[in-house]
Amino acid sequence: MDSDSKIQYGCRICGGRLREWCDFGRQPVSQSFRDPGATDSEFFFRLAVGLCLSCTMVQHVEEVPRSLMFHENYPYRSSGSEFMRRHFEEVARHFLKTELADPGSFAVEIGCNDGIMLRTISEAGVRHLGVDPSRRAVEVAQASGIRVRPEFFEEETAKAIRAAEGPADLIYSANTISHIPYLDSLFRGVSALLSANGVCVFEDRYLGDILGNASFDQIYDEHFYLFSVRSVQAMAVRFGLELVGAERMTVHGGSIRYTLARPGARAPRPEVAELLEQEREQGLDGTEQLQRFSARIEEIRVDLIRLLGELRADGKRVVGYGATAKSATLTNYCGIGTGLVEFVCDSTPGKHGLLTPGMHLPVRPPEAFASPYPDYALLFAWNHAEEIMAKERVFQEQGGKWILYVPKVHVV
Predict the structure, then answer these.
(1) Residues 6+ apart with CB under 8 A from 3
(2) pLDDT tens figures, 367-378
(3) DSSP for 51-90, written as a single string
(4) Can you say whether the dihedral through the CA atoms of 266, 269, 272, 273 is positive or negative?
């Protein structure tokens, strides 16, 4: 990974050189669940990530066309998890006490999905607008009284919103900014739309936690960038903004809520400097930790394949739990097909009867999990382990065991 052949120009933020350090090989679009009769025209790409040697942004080497990932049939729904529903309600209540306390405030959410965050803001009577390209998710939001523009957020979108609605006091986004390779256009839009003292707040998975937990399945087509505090700070400066807040969160296995403002509008909070110092001490912007991460990934892959093979040889039944986007990276990188895992249970009706991307594991409704219970369940949705295990406590009471692979392969 250290040879000059792995260094190339192409950082999407600053144009600097990328040092490629992790390659998961041939991967499908993570949310492209297939009809059993339509598996011959599947799109694949090389999933590899690199570190920019200039601004330290970690990013994909290849870009998947956004129309293949985010379209009207995009299946993910933010409100599908009780934990996430509570999280977004708390986020909204926090903003209502702070950035949106003025009756005339205006909030915009980039990637609002089914409107679970904006619902609380709408019920409080605060002017709002969501922007999301998934028409079916938008329809769910609109049915709840949420105002949404069904399109991608870009500079022209933002200018149109500003002309029609005025400046935004809050621009919020959760687990979406990292999905967008064209951040130059997005942040020009943020700058055009944001009020003089407004803030742009976004939550995303944290590179430090991904490396620390060896949660390599957080790397998939949608997560084009893996943010650190240092790389976000450099990105903000490049786009005429300033990083003034960086709050650690446990969501999705470890995230940070970043707050950006116009330069000088707000004083940076102490945690920004504290986290930057922690990253320097940990060598988060260097290659040594990245190489250790690659070694841990290989260890997880070998251990998981060995365990699943041994269980199958012993006649044990193993099913997957949670047809998540990130499970595409795991199953395709490890070659986990129906020879090792019978099927995957998931609560999303739109996925039932379909096959998972690439490895084509059948997706079945939650009822199939107990008909009868398997011996083992491979928990793809490990970031919701506590919620899921509480829900499925009968499974364990009857002798069932969970297989987890973050931060290492282990059985619970």
Answers:
(1) none
(2) 999 999 999 999
(3) EETTT--EEESS---HHHHSSTT----GGGSHHHHHHHHH
(4) positive
16 by Cβ neighbours in 10 Å (0-12 / 13-18 / 19+) ranks as: middle
Instruction: In whole angstroms, give the CA distance from residue 293 to residue 288.
Output: 9
Rounded to whole angstroms, how far apart are CA atoms 267 and 344?
A: 48
Beta strands 225-226 and 44-52, pairing class: unpaired
**Token digits for 332?**
């395709």
What percent of the chain has a predicted confidence (pLDDT) above 90?
Answer: 83
Q: What per-residue confidence (pLDDT) applies to 10?
A: 87
CATH 3.40.50.150, domain 78-288, yes or no: yes
State the Cα–Cα distance between residues 358 and 291, nearest whole angstrom.
Answer: 27
| Radius of gyration over every alpha carbon of the chain, rounded to an integer in angstroms | 21
Give the model's pLDDT for residue 2.
39
> Cα(first)–Cα(last) distance of the chain, in Å?
35
pLDDT of 129 reads: 98
Predicted local distance difference test score (pLDDT) of residue 4: 41
Q: Which pLDDT belongs to residue 3?
A: 38
pTM, full prediction: 0.91
Give the integer Cα–Cα distance in Å for 202 and 317. Answer: 41
pLDDT (0 to 100) of residue 284: 87
On whether the CB atoms of residues 404 and 385 are closer than 8 A, the answer is yes
Q: Which residues of the chain have pLDDT under 70?
A: 1-9, 70-78, 80
Which of 216, 208, 251 is closest to 232 using CA atoms?
208
Beta bridge partners of 259: 201, 245
Helix axes 183-193, 155-165, angle to 10 degrees: 10
